[in-house]
Amino acid sequence: MPWEEDPGDLYEHAPCGYLTTLPDGTIVRVNETFLAWTGYERSELVGRKRFRDLLSPGDKIYHETHYAPLLSMQGDVHEVAFDVVCADRRRLPTLVNSVLGRDPAGHPRAIRTMVFDATERRGYEKELLKARRTAEASELRVRALQQVVAELSAAPSAAEVAGAVVRAPAAAFDAAFCNVWLVDPDRDQLTAVASTDPDGPARDDIPCSSSRPIAEVARRGDLHVVPTIAAAEERFPELADTMRRTGIRSAVLLPLTTGFAGETIGAEVLGVLSFGFTEERELDEPELSVVRLLGHQAGQALDRARLYDDAGRREARAMFLAETTRALEEPYRLMPRARNLVERLVPAIAEWAAVRLQIGPAGLLADAGGPAPDQVRLAERVAIVVANGKAEFTDVGADPDCAVLPLTAGGKVLGTLALRMAPGRRTAAAEAAFLSDLADRAGLALENARLYEQERAIARTLQRSLLAGDLPSDPRFAVETHYQAAAQDLEVGGDWFDAFLITQDKLAVVVGDVVGRGIDAATTMGQLRSAIRALASAEAGPARLLERLDRFVDRVESARMATVAYAEVDLTTNEMTYACAGHLPPLLTEPGGSPRYLLDARSGAIGSRAGSTARIEHRVPLSPGSRLLLYTDGLIERRTRPIDKGFEVLARTYAGRRDSPLPGLTKGLAQTLVGGDHPDDVCLLCLSLGTEERLERSIGADPVQIALLRKDLRGWLVSHDVDDDSTQAVLLACSEAVANAIEHGYRNDPFGIVDVTATISAAAIEVEVTDRGNWKGPTGEVSRGRGLRLIRQVMDQVNFDRRDGTTVTMRRTRREAR
Amino acid sequence: MTDQQWVTFAKMGSADLVRLAGEIDLANAPEIGREIVRHTGRSGAVLIDLTAVSFLDSAGVRLLDALVGDLDQAGTPIRLVVGETGAARMTLKLCAFRDDLLATDLERAADELGG
């Protein structure tokens, strides 16, 4: 039969090796197959070698510790893997089965061993093992990547994204020296933001156009793997230096890009991740794909963070603009608005900010924060911006981040806003839209404040000029007035006073109040004041005057509903006729009596349609020494108390000051009744009939004031029928004494006060001049000496008292009495 | 208040005429002095008209005294024209100004200086 086989040939050429050994392992028989596999000669083995002698060193140990004991105990072993060392030292992977044969007495007789070639199988096993290791490594990387992706998705800001990304290469690849750079589009540079270096990221901003590898990767947007220092030397010598310095042998530069993996067109590079290995390392394709994936994941997270940042910033900006616009509306006046603006900007937006306004000869400036930039350079740039009306967001000079924006309104440049953005913020150029919007709004708000300021100034000037007119003076009466503007920054009111002589012997006094505020009210007040002067006549009287005013407001509508208290005094008979058109009642004190309100002769406001315009007047005889007070409602009206209470307080205060000299009386009343912090204008006029027996004045240490004092003193002397020579003499002596007090007593104290008191009797005039200054040194100075000599020449008695300051008492006997 | 003209200048014949008005005292005398010096530095003759002065104190006297001293030294003739009565005359008399300096009539004083 063709399949009949010769047993001998079957043994020799079986598809496996056969060995027969003695129990001690000495080979006694071996087949041809084994010899062919191992390359030994039969004679080399039989009787000369033990089976274990053919094994690799490790397998010899295994043979002793496992194979031999197992065989002797069980009588057989199966599929033991041994590497047989061939004649040419090659190792042949095998699997071995052995059976221990025993003699009938049970003693070991021989071992039969079958040897299978396991080369293929061992290769396969190795493959398996390797595959498993690869899978494990890949799983580690995937886990690291998953961890990073989880962290990235939770990172709301670019800085946090960078922080998560920088940890990934170490976790996934056991990499070292990882750094993250982010592209800063505003500054066109790459900024190191995160590093595994314990010292933190390098303070080393790289311009995007730089030839450095980080910039190159950012520009090209593809992954750069530098396997060796030598490779780095070729392309990026600088990188080679860094690698040497930091002990890196292989480096990877990974762009962090938007878009999806594999997409390169339209993908934007937002940053670069660099990392290295301390030994030379080739990254295989699966590893590279993980690296690329990391780049995309990080890029998307950065993109998200950027959008999130943008949205947040836009929201914050919109809120800031809205709040600032609102806040700027609050103070009416210009400087407080400008201050408000810079204080809102610093530190929220800028580290330094300054508003300059081209108003007034020197301009106005409000600034906050610091450090301020170089003033010379800033002034140049401000001039350019004012001239062009165009913002400059950066500068080529030493302070590139300092921006200057025009503040415009109605096409006119009002001034500039200069600022340097807070550190760590986006540049002014990047915030151009926001800053321009802010400057536009600020420009409008400041222009409005400027207009307000201008109108206010005009109204005040107008009002002052109208009120400043000369009041009549006459020995038979004296008029004292006071006008006090509202303390708060409100517009001027339409309050006014006036006193004028209608005829030689007929005096008119008036206090009124026009409806409204501001320049219109001031103008109307002026018109009404002039109208009253023009309409008053010797024959008409108060009631007729008010009727004419009623007709007047038909033409001057803004004067309608003005209120007026008007009185005419016949200086020959001391009879007063008065009328009140909607105005508060005059307050009268007569010598020896209590103050009383004059409540007759009341009718409605001027031009009133609802109020009574049947104009009536009332006559009151006045005794000499009477005082009549006219005032506007600011003096007594308070939101916190009923008006009748106000009347009561005024009457009481007025009564308390009945003995006070007329000068300063109205001012004192206003101060006592309304104080410094009053929300409304206050206007008072006090008419005193008959004259003061005693003249008292306090003047500041200013030569200009001496002329005013002389004016009062002259009027007072005239009213007491003092002759001309004596009047001249007293004026000269008093002037010299006051000049002395100012020039010597208060030579170091411009705020000193000189008190002057003059009294008169039938026999003499006496003047006392007192200062509290420090009169040092000689009176012998020629010029002053001349002054003192003049005093002694024109006065009959002169006495100096220098105990506490200086009091000069001077007396001149009246010539008519001499 | 300050727009009042205390001092004005004119020519009268060959003389420079300085007209003073209002109240001359410590407050305005130095300024007036400077004005006069500025206008009369090279005058051949100076006439100071004080008839409209309603008050004159020692500071005003000091001013006039210094002015007269300077002009005398330069050999420039000067006259102070004051009213028959009034504040200026009173003060100057009290300070014993030389009679040859004082005149009461402007035209005559101008003639004297011119002659």
The number of strands of chain A is 31
Number of strands of chain B: 5
Physical arrangement of strands within the biggest beta sheet of chain A: 8-7-6-11-10-9
What is the radius of gyration of chain B computed over CA atoms, rounded to a whole number of angstroms? Answer: 13 Å
Low-confidence stretches of chain B: none
CATH class of chain B: Alpha Beta
Instruction: Count interface residues per chain for the largest interface.
Output: A-B, 24 and 17 residues
Give me the CATH fold name of the largest domain in chain A: Phosphatase 2c, domain 1
The whole-angstrom Rg of chain A is: 56 Å
- Mean pLDDT across all residues of chain A, rounded? 85
Proportion in helices of chain B: 40-55%
Terminal Cα span of chain B = 40 Å
- Please tell me what the overall shape of chain B is: globular
Strand-pairing-aware structural class of chain B:
alpha/beta
The major sheet of chain A is characterized as: 6 strands, antiparallel
Q: Name the quaternary structure.
A: heterodimer
InterPro entries (chain B): STAS_dom, STAS_dom_sf
Organism (chain B): Winogradskya consettensis
Protein name (chain B): STAS domain-containing protein
Domain STAS (chain B): 17-81
In short:
The complex is a heterodimer of chains A (818) and B (115). Chain A is α+β, with helices and mostly antiparallel strands and 818 residues long.
Distinctive features:
heterodimer; A: 818 residues; alpha+beta; Beta-Lactamase; 5 domains; 6-stranded antiparallel beta sheet; 6-stranded mixed beta sheet; 20 helices; 31 strands; B: 115 residues; alpha/beta; Transcription Regulator spoIIAA; 5-stranded mixed beta sheet; 5 strands; 40% helix; globular
Describe this structure in words.
The complex is a heterodimer of chains A (818) and B (115). Chain A is 40% helix and 27% strand. With 818 residues, chain A is α+β, with helices and mostly antiparallel strands. Chain A has five domains: 7-117, PAS domain (Beta-Lactamase), CATH 3.30.450; 134-311, GAF domain (Beta-Lactamase), CATH 3.30.450.40; 333-458, Beta-Lactamase (2-Layer Sandwich), CATH 3.30.450.40; 469-689, PPM-type phosphatase domain (Phosphatase 2c, domain 1), CATH 3.60.40; 694-817, 2-Layer Sandwich (Heat Shock Protein 90). Chain A has a six-stranded antiparallel beta sheet. In chain A, strands 17, 18, 19, 20, 23 and 24 form a six-stranded mixed beta sheet that branches. A five-stranded antiparallel beta sheet of chain A has the order 2-1-5-4-3, with helices on both faces. In chain A, a hairpin with a 5-residue loop joins strand 3 (76-85) and strand 4. The mean pLDDT of chain A is 85. In chain B, a hairpin with a 2-residue loop joins strand 1 and strand 2 (15-24). Chain B starts with 6 loop residues before the first strand and ends with a helix. Chain B has a single domain, classed as Transcription Regulator spoIIAA (2-Layer Sandwich), CATH 3.30.750. Chain B has helices at 29-40, 58-74, 87-94, 106-114; strands spanning 7-12, 15-24, 46-56, 78-81, 102-103. Chain B is an alpha/beta fold and 115 residues long. Chain B has a five-stranded mixed beta sheet with strand order 1-2-3-4-5, sandwiched between helices. Chain B: InterPro entries: STAS_dom (IPR002645), STAS_dom_sf (IPR036513). Chain B: Residues 17-81 form the STAS domain. Chain B: This is STAS domain-containing protein. Chain B: Pfam families: STAS (PF01740).
